[in-house]
Amino acid sequence: MEVGKVHAERDRLLPLRAEATRTTIEMVRTRSEDELFAFALSLANLAVAAVVDLAKFTELTTVQPRCPGSR
Questions:
Q1: Separation of alpha carbons 35 and 44, rounded Å
Q2: Is there a contact between 22 and 16 (Cβ–Cβ < 8 Å)?
Q3: I need a surface site. Which of 9, 29, 56, 62 has the fewest CB within 10 A?
Q4: Contacts from 60-68 at CB under 8 Å and sequence distance 24+?
Q5: How far apart (Å, rounded) are the C-alpha atoms in residues 23 and 6?
Q6: What are the residue ranges of helices labelled H in 1-71?
Q7: Is 62 exposed, middle or buried (0-12, 13-18, 19+ CB in 10 A)?
Q8: CA angle 50, 69, 7 (to 5 degrees)
Q9: Whole-prediction pTM
Q10: pLDDT tens per residue across span 5-64
């Protein structure tokens, strides 16, 4: 994935942040424990996918820190 695509995707999703926050808060207020657990698992899966994509983009493993002075 190239940097331009990453920035374009961020720019596409950024305006949806407020709506996503409101939706999340409303879910927490009105949903059952099982539904919240399923939602949390979905968020965790999204986070893992994002970390894996970032690792591929930066050519680092998901546990490898970036060394000072590296590109």
A1: 14
A2: no
A3: 29
A4: none
A5: 24
A6: 3-13, 17-30, 33-58
A7: exposed
A8: 35
A9: 0.50
A10: 777 888 888 888 888 888 888 888 888 888 888 888 888 888 888 888 877 778 777 665
Residue tagged 């965790």 (tokens): 44
Give per-residue burial for 4-36: e unless 16+ CB within 10 Å, then b: eeeeeeeeeeeeeeeeeeeeeeeeeeeeeeeee
Residue whose structure tokens are 């698992």: 41
d(CA 45, CA 42) in angstroms, rounded, equals: 5
Domain coordinates of the chain in residue numbers? Answer: 3-58
Can you tell me which residue has the tokens 């970032």? 54
